[in-house]
Amino acid sequence: MKSNALTLFLLLIATPVVAQAPIEIDPARATGATVQYFGWDLKGWKDSTSTPKRAEKLYADTPANIVRISIEGIAHREDGTVNEKPYGAMLKSIANIREINPDVKIFASIKLAKEKTFPAWVQSNEEGSIFNVKVKRPIPQKYARLVADYIDWLRKNKIAIDFLGLNNEISNALTPPLYVATARALTAELDRRNTPKEYRSFQFVGAEGFGTTTSVRYAQAIVAEGGLAYANIWGSHFYPDLTSGSINDWTRLSNVARGRPIWHTELHVRSSPEPAEHVAKVRDGLAILFATNQIGAEGYVWWSRGHDDNPTNLVRRKAITSLLGGSCVYTSGQYKAKDNAPDATLAQATRVDDIVWLWYFNPVAAIKELPIHLKRGKATQASCEFWGGGGSGPTQTSGTLEVENRNGKYLVVKDIPATSIVLVKMDLRSSSSSSPDSPDALVAPRQWRSANPNSKAILAALESVKDGIGHFRQASGATFDYPLNKLSTEDRQIAEAAASQ
Q: What are the angstrom distances between the C-alpha of 59 and each of 214, 297, 320, 401?
């Protein structure tokens, strides 16, 4: 790491302040899935929201709507009683979050604790491993009892879980056949206990292996076991600095998912006190966030305490605000999900409702002007904030930057510091051109009807026609294809005439 830092330092002192080519953004062209859930993890830091002030930073200052909590196996005794000590301040933290957002979703996940993951009474005689540590694999019926006891304990505290993860990087201990058997046994156990519907209406989060390669194999095996009913969502972990598969594995996971949502259930960002290295590390963490969203991921959980006001946590919080309820949108330029060069910049825009956000990671020299071109829509207002320096210590800087809004479509961010992370906010509200109507559309937005007289008209622009199939775009930015010969006679004639010009 020292050699990389030295290389970046030499680049900084040797490279003059430069101007950049324009970053093109199409706010109407979504390139990722709409993010449904984004939140924080209490598994490693059960006191993260143990005070109202801490909870406000994570669940009031951001729109976070999910919290991941732990199932502490060693806390559960064979007689069904619970030693609450391992859970620490978790219940208090949940209560503080619910004071802010009563509708927050609860995602319960087994705590990885190597040989202490499962208590002795749950263990079988069969050997497995967790991160090269030999362990005894769980007996499905007993693991199911433990989870049922956990659900009962939460029920006494008026907490119902919404999502359940039985596997959490313990794939060589809880094998796919054991996973499916445990999920089936849990369903039967909750039936036997007459558990009220509101406390058993959770969805299973399947896979959740260390790395997406492992998650894909695990998911495939669950499907082969006939366990698709116990994987309503497919989850995985993917690390910026560890060997954990490739972005192509996310495509494979999406294919295995068969239309079910995919989540990144443990999102990591690293830090460094050295400015250039720090910006590169944070860039690499968010590169994974953006790349997986563009594969189709729609749920995320930050693995972080989160409430400390260090630059990395501030970026994490802004990431939630800039993506939850929206998605990545077309942005010119390229970057990798992993293994970017130390001095590589990254530009990625997102859109949530009528707000467009542009993230720009600059690990090297200062930039005099960063031009932005909105291909569709106009920004009625624009602002910019930045974080610079290292992840800790006296090198930290932050503040705002000037944004020159020339005509709503062309904007320029001024004087971007070296080794900095920039976030531009562009407001398309009250803009007469903020709808995603393409100036190059064959037919401007109009009501289209099919040949079926009982069909409902759809407002959309016709963008192109190929082999008799029209490509349409709605005001939301959503696109769809439809055969012209299935349109009403009038609409077909309009479309065909436009296509022939």
A: 32, 21, 10, 27
Angle at 365 between CA 6 and CA 412, to 5 degrees: 160
The residues, ordered by sequence, that sit 6+ positions from 262 with a Cβ below 8 Å of its Cβ are 233, 234, 235, 236, 250, 253, 254, 295, 296, 297, 298, 299
Q: Under a CB-based contact definition with an 8 Å cutoff, are residues 287 and 346 in contact? A: yes
Entry pTM: 0.82
> In the structure encoding, which two tokens stand for residue 161, read together?
């879980």
How many Cβ atoms sit within 10 Å of the Cβ of residue 13? Answer: 8
Following DSSP, what letter does each residue of 73-113 receive, concatenated? GGGB-TTS-B--GGGTTHHHHHHHHHHH-TT-EEEEEEPP-
Degrees, nearest 5: CA angle 150-152-153: 65
Note whether 477 and 461 are within 8 A (CB). Answer: no
**Residue 46 corresponds to which tokens in the numbers above?**
């059960």
Q: Are 464 and 442 in contact (CB under 8 A)?
A: yes
Strand partners, 491: none
At 452, is the secondary structure helix, strand, or coil?
coil
| Tens-digit pLDDT profile for residues 340-361 | 999 999 999 999 999 999 999 9
